[in-house]
Structures are given as C-alpha cells and as structure tokens.
Amino acid sequence: ATAAAAAGGAAPWAGGGERRGMAAARGCPPAGCGDRALAELLLEFSRAQYRAKDGGGAAAVERIERRCLELFGRDYRYSVIPNAHGEVCAHYPRHIVLLEKHKDTFESTVQVGKLQDLINRSKMARCRGRFVCPVILYKGKHICRSATLAGWGELYGRTGYNYIFSGGSDDAWADAEDISEEDSALRNADSQLFDKVRGHDIKLLRYLSVRYICDLMVENKKVKFGLNVTSSEKVDKAQRYADFTLLSIPYPGCEFFKDYKDRDYTAEGLIFNWKQDYVDAPLSIPVSLTQSLNIDWSEYQSWDLVQQTQNYLKLLISIINSDDDSGLLVHCISGWDRTPLFISLLRLSLWADGLIHASLEPSEILYLTVAYDWFLFGHMLVDRLSKGEEIFFFCFNFLKHITSEEFSAVKSQRRKSLPPGFTLEEICMLKQRDRGSTTSLSSDFSLGMESSPGAAGSFTYEAVELMPAGAQAQAAWRKSCASSPQAVLWSRAQQSEDRLPSTGIVEVKSSSSSSSTHSDNFLRIGSSPLEVPRSRLVSASDRESRLEEVRSSFLASYSRTIGLKAVPPSPSGAIGGLLEQFVRGVGLRGSSTL
C-alpha cells in the first residue's frame, strides 16, 4: 500500500511530505482498534523488531501503519515525511508524522519541507541516525524524541562509510558545494566535523522551538571497548548547546528492568545502584524548573523505581505546561527504551486529561502509543523479552501510579487562577449549589467562571473573583458540605515544603538519605454531587478511570499474546504479587491461590 493510499488518497504536500488529517479522517471508517487489533499488534511486535529499511511489506505491519495515521487524523491535521525504505532513518516509522494543527485551536509553525531539509542535514549528529523527531503537539509546542549525540567513533565510521560508498561525496548530510569542506574536516580536525554536524542538529532544534533538553542517560558518554561511542549535550566540549536549558535526569537503562521482572514485577522498593563505576552523570536541573514541584531532588538516589518515574514525569509535565512557547526533547542513548517510556507516559497522561487525542477511546489511544511510540520507533521487544528486561510492560502497568490529580496538566493550569483556601472541586460544588447564577452563589461568595481555550473537548474552570466572608465562612461552608449525604470531602495530605536555593541549578552527586514516602494528594470519600459531562471537563475521577481502562486493556491483551514470565513460587505456594493481581483482575481465575 502506498503512503497516499494509507491516508485515503491524500494529495502530495511540500517537500515530499503529504498533508492529511482531520477532514479526511472524519469520512473514514473507525480504525478498528479493539482487542483483536491490539492483540495482532502485540503479536507482530513480539516476533521481530520493526525496521523501516526492511521496507515493511507484511500485511500486518501495513495495517498497523495505516491505523496509526487514521488515529492521528481524528484530532490533527498532519503531514507525512516519507521513510519508505529507511532512507531518512532505518529505525523510524516508514511514515513519520508531523502534527501541524490540533482541531481549531493550536497550530504548529513548522513547514514539512523545511523540516525535511533540516533532518537530512542533521541526522548524522545523533546515535544511529535517530534525529530529533516531533511526536506530540501540545498547546502548539512540539514534544520530541531522539537518540543522544553521536561520538567521534560512530560519526567517523558512518561518514567514512557514506563517503566511500557514495563515490566520494557524503550526500547524506552535505551539500555539493560543501564537499571540499567535508573532506577537510574528515582528514584534519574533529572540531570542524562536530561544528558542522552538531550545528545542523542545533538548527533543527531551534526550528522546532525546542528549548528544554532532558537527558535520561546515567553516563556522560557511553563507553564500549574503551571507546566513547556516544556523547551528550551536557558534555559537549565546545558548549554548542549552551543556549538550551539542559536537564540531566539520570534514569536506569533497560538492564535494570530485569530486576523488576525478577522481583515479580514489583517496582515498589526497587532502587537503582548509583555506585556502579559507569554511572557518572549527576542529576542537574535548573532551580527555576523545580520550585513549584515540592520535591526534594537531593533524595533522588534513595527513590525507588516508582518514586523516580513519578517525579520525572511531574517534571516533564511542569515543563510543557509552562507559559512560554518552547518545546521539549527527551532522549536516552539510542532512544528506544527509556525514551518511549516517558513519551508514552506523557501522551497517555495528557490524553487522560482531555488535552490531546480527545476523540480517541481508551483502546484507541493504547493502540496508538504501543504502535507508534514503541513498535514503529524500533523498540527491540524480542531482545528485551529474551533477556527479561521488561521496560515495555512496566510502562503500561505503571499507569496505576499516575491516576491522581497531582499528575494532571489541567490541575497545573487551574492552580494559576484558583484563590487560596479552596480547591477546584470545592468551587465546582459551589457552582452546583446555585445553578441559577454563575456569578452570585450566596451572600458570602462571588464567583465568576469562564471557559479556558484549551484543547477541543476539554473545559477548565478559572476563578475570576472569589470573595469569601473570611476563614469562618470557609469553615462553615465546608462543614455544611460535609454534612450533606452527597458531599465529596477532599482532604489534602500535608506535604513538606522543601527549601531550595532561589537561583542556580539543583545538582546532586550523591545522597545517603533514606527513601521518602509517597502519598496521593487527594483522598476521595463518598461520591461526587457534581455531574459534568466528560466531553467538557475531565475530573480527577475521570482521569483515574480512563487510565485504569487503558491499563486493564493492556494487561488483558498482553496476557493473551505475550504473557508474563512467572518467578519461582513462594514457599506458601502462591504466585507472586503482580501476577496474582493480574490473573484476578482480568478474570482468569478466582481469589484462591494456586
């Protein structure tokens, strides 16, 4: 099937890309992303690593590619950068999607023709040619993924190979008029080559308006056989990336997830060993990005896998929810293990809030992120499963740990306008108690509500004016609500306020403190009297139910296709914790132990 046929006969677009999306997709039949389609996807995923350079070809792969395009088209206008035989990148999708506009709201300024030109020039700068690629469009900002920077060994190896087999000219990243300069760089100086290649990488980042670069590597440089095979922005000797906001947020590689599997798929209490010889990248985050998060970053080496993943996700959500128009790049080494973990969690979290992919059902967003973020971007599931490195399974099982509102991007937006002393839920309850007026709720309160121009299908409340009679009035109101049989009482768990420096960068190299404990921000008691249609406002309970439905669908399909590898049984004869919960949760057997 051609790229045009996959999109329903879309017309060619500038620079070899093809523009498609919302209007055409509305006339297409549903993508058929139910349990059967997901099972087919997982089976294909577990057979072999996807490689665009192999040309796809299999009917199952073509159906997966087509469904991804259909699902993107539900909410976005987009263009496609063709990569039919891996000529752009061997391990990226054959149809690389550039999201251009989200319904009638946020629009990207990126032009696909210009983007393709920058990609062709810059791809040599990064490991395995996995260039900076935009994958999520949120509030007009591009959230991107890539591999880390290529080191001199890989760069010289690939440029030399291309030079020899292209008859003396490296047309993968050089213009004809630059050949003499490239030859000189290859013969004489590392710096000239790095200036050229990384200069194109920086131009691509700037064109995508990326300001924040989050590096998940636990190393400054990846070393194999005594050679630096990769580098990273944070240790670029020429400081070429100094104009970007660099965040070093070291996160364990896929090898660590064998420990997760061996502990019966239990992430609680699993702490990475930061004392290993190869671990030399300290956590480093500008203080300006941490002040609102109330996290003690000096404790990061004592966090278990749950806390670390939660806190990094909170950081990423905070960055993309900032007031500026800057985009975000997330990368690890090769960009196909840790990178899709956080890209997938970001996509699912924003979807659960109703901020992106608002037209997709839980089964559809699950299909899209498994297919596009993991399979089509080259995650080596077969290899990882054979080694017990189950980072892919961890990603979707981890959704149970991010259901609360503290991970909501909507909550972050609301905080900017909520008056002190009241939560959003309490304000919504005020509105519920006086349906006759949106501006005069009682003699004690005056409240104005307005719609926020967020993503289509979502609705946020912003308190414009709230004038309580005082603390006594607030207390009396809460008391009257608590006595109502339909009331919802939200009790906020007290959190310690960590003191951080007012300027500079949070940089931590070691920590001997004990692991901090985690608790949800809100505890729900009773049932809510406020019934708001999901299409208008995604409440905390909706967010939880949406993510739980995604997780349950994944667990059920994973069980039928790939399956968990049980660890040896405990002396009591019962199977391990997660496996036990799983088989009960999907109804495979009752509550009795084996």
UniProtKB/TrEMBL annotation:
GO terms for molecular function: phosphatidylinositol-3-phosphate phosphatase activity. Residues 504-525 are annotated as: Disordered. Coiled coil: none annotated. Gene3D superfamilies: Protein tyrosine phosphatase superfamily. InterPro entries: MTMR14, MTMR14_PH-GRAM, Prot-tyrosine_phosphatase-like, Tyr_Pase_AS. PANTHER family: MYOTUBULARIN-RELATED, MYOTUBULARIN-RELATED PROTEIN 14. This is Uncharacterized protein. It comes from Melopsittacus undulatus (Budgerigar). The gene is LOC101867617.
